[in-house]
């Protein structure tokens, strides 16, 4: 039988997921959507033959909704996640899990108390074919022990409402997860620097940012996040290990030579660059939920990322390294 899905928040990401469920995911059906923008919800629902449920908590409780995708803004997640846990509904929650470490830890603890994993966090890069190939290469040991990651994360543009904090919580959070995942270690200390900002942002916004992560296992990672790069979407990662390096995200799909230029295309945004990753993520999530499982990034991963981002924000305001205050995993999850 098909998994009946409700989506909360149908902005860019939620609408993209809605299309994905309807057109490219097997074993799943879109039944309901919810969005504060009623016209936006109506338009999407009528186009995809779903219904609108104005109140997001009512959507979560609806009897014909088996599982939920949360693509609402981060500040709305905590309440909606607790409702999903209360109703026993599996949920794929777009990052960030919540806005801070304390509330994320409460989510982890509430789920743990249920004794049943229901939450997956939308760290889609773990499903991107290039990232998974890099992960396999590092895990194979062929290159020896990983020492460093160099990351680049650029967006074409983000609205003026995308403040310095969001650059950490909504953008850099991806590299936080990538570093934890690829290097198999928690981040114990973070430093976030910011050069004189681009003139493309309003006063007070620090864009780009440059961060250094110190991993508990002694490895390190650096990341440039630049969300108003103007040109297009670019995400790259180079891993340096004892006997070699490996780079992904060069975007060397099709190179053309024409009209006095050579080169390839540059994606406009994450929906294009990570389209395969999202398709694989959602298909696997649907299949795992059908087996009563969650097999992607967990609430703990969302909490750990929130703890790192909270320390990152403290570092951003002082320029000093900040130690990450992470609960003991054993103590929380047993
Ligand atoms: C957005 O929310 C995402 O998650 C994208 O992956 C990221 O590149 C972008 O900076 C965020 O705004």
UniProtKB/TrEMBL annotation:
Reaction catalyzed: myo-inositol + NAD(+) = scyllo-inosose + NADH + H(+)
EC annotation from Swiss-Prot or TrEMBL: 1.1.1.18
Family matches, as InterPro entries: Gfo-Idh-MocA_inositol_DH (IPR050424), Gfo/Idh/MocA-like_OxRdtase_N (IPR000683), GFO_IDH_MocA-like_dom (IPR055170), MI/DCI_dehydrogenase (IPR023794), NAD(P)-bd_dom_sf (IPR036291)
Domain Gfo/Idh/MocA-like oxidoreductase N-terminal, residue spans: 3-122
GO molecular-function terms, A-Z: inositol 2-dehydrogenase (NAD+) activity; nucleotide binding
Key words, A-Z: NAD, Oxidoreductase
Entry keyword annotation includes Metal-binding: no
Top-level taxon of the source organism: Bacteria
Domain GFO/IDH/MocA-like oxidoreductase: start-end pairs: 131-246
GO BP terms: inositol catabolic process
Amino-acid biosynthesis as UniProt keyword: no
Subunit composition and interactions: Homotetramer.
Cited function: Involved in the oxidation of myo-inositol (MI) to 2-keto-myo-inositol (2KMI or 2-inosose).
Family, similarity comment: Belongs to the Gfo/Idh/MocA family.
Full protein name: Inositol 2-dehydrogenase
Encoding gene (name): iolG
């Amino acid at each position: 039988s098909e998994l009946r899905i409700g989506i909360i928040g149908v902005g860019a990401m939620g609408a993209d997921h809605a299309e994905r469920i309807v057109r490219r995911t097997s074993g799943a059906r879109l039944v309901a959507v919810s969005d504060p923008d009623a016209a936006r919800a109506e338009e999407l629902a009528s186009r995809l033959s779903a219904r609108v449920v104005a109140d997001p908590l009512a959507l979560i409780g609806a009897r014909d909704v088996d599982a939920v995708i949360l693509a609402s803004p981060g500040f709305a997640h905590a309440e909606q996640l607790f409702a999903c846990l209360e109703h026993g509904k599996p949920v794929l929650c777009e990052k960030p899990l919540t806005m801070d470490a304390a509330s994320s830890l409460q989510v982890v603890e509430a789920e743990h108390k249920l004794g049943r994993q229901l939450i997956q966090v939308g760290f889609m890069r773990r499903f991107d074919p290039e990232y998974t190939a890099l992960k396999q290469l590092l895990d194979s040991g062929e290159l020896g022990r990983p020492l460093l990651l160099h990351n680049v994360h650029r967006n074409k543009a983000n609205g003026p409402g995308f403040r310095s904090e969001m650059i950490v919580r909504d953008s850099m959070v991806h590299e936080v997860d990538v570093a934890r995942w690829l290097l198999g270690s928690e981040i114990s200390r973070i430093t976030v620097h910011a050069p004189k900002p681009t003139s493309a942002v309003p006063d007070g916004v620090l864009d780009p940012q440059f961060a250094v992560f110190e991993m508990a296992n002694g490895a390190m990672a650096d990341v440039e996040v630049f969300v108003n790069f103007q040109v297009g979407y670019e995400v790259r990662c180079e891993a340096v290990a004892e006997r070699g390096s490996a780079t992904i995200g060069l975007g060397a799909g099709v190179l053309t030579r024409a009209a006095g230029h050579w080169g390839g295309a540059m994606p406009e945004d994450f929906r294009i660059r990570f389209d395969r990753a999202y398709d694989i993520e959602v298909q696997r999530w649907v299949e795992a939920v059908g087996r009563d499982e969650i097999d992607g990034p967990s609430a703990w991963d969302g909490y750990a990322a929130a703890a790192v981002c909270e320390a990152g924000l403290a570092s951003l305001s002082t320029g000093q390294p900040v130690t990450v205050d992470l609960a003991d995993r054993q103590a929380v999850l047993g």
